[in-house]
Amino acid sequence: MGELVLIRHGQTEWSRQRRHTGRTDLPLTAQGEEEAEALRPLLAEREVGLVVTSPLARAVRTAELAGLDDPAVDPDLVEWDYGGYEGITTAEIQRDRPGWNLWRDGVPPGDADHPGELVEQVGERADRVLALVTAELDAGGPDVVLVAHGHVLRVLTARWLGLPSSEGVLFRLDTATLSTLGREHDRPVITSWNTGR
How far, in Å, CA of 166 to CA of 16, rounded? Predict the structure, then answer.
């Protein structure tokens, strides 16, 4: 069975500034493009079958620069909707809400384009993606690659492991990194994490 390969998109201006970037469709920075291209040799070593990206430009461009051809686009891989905290850093939020933690405390509603999401809703989307890719992997095919965003991929990892969505807090994920999920004795495991930079 192939592995499930997770790629977080390359750097954007907001990720560089550590701003919550959910549905805002920002391009990669020049550094982000270089980071994405640096993934190409790591992926060239793999037999890749299905490639699925978030619909947001930063993920689609990362896949392209990493040499992943003809990806399918799945809206369930879009980043967590941060609602009223879109574009704001954790430090800024904590000035008004000391001790605030995204994974525990969630987000307030924002405007019509950023209504906000509960971590469990992100988990429901991740479960749908996993149902799709697990069928591919269980058929004995090659690796499946997902190119998306930090928080949604962390939630997806928690769900792969059978954990609650909120346990994604345990899995730090940097921009333009490659991680892999697989099985050992039929149990879901992490086979590598946050590599490639």
Answer: 24
Answer whether 143's CB lies under 8 Å from 3's CB.
yes
Name the residue type at position 103. Answer: W
Express each pLDDT in 148-188 by its tens digit. 999 999 999 999 999 999 999 999 999 999 999 999 999 99
b/e sequence 154-175, b meaning 16+ C-beta within 10 Å: bbbbbbbbebebbbbbebebeb
Tens-digit pLDDT profile for residues 2-28: 999 999 999 999 999 999 999 999 999
Residues 83, 90: Cα–Cα separation, whole Å: 14
193: buried, middle or exposed (CB in 10 Å: 19+, 13-18, 0-12)? middle
Contact 110, 83 (CB under 8 A): yes
Catalytic annotation, residues:
9, 79
Q: Are 59 and 53 in contact (CB under 8 A)?
A: yes
Amino acid at 63: A
Output the pTM of the full model: 0.96
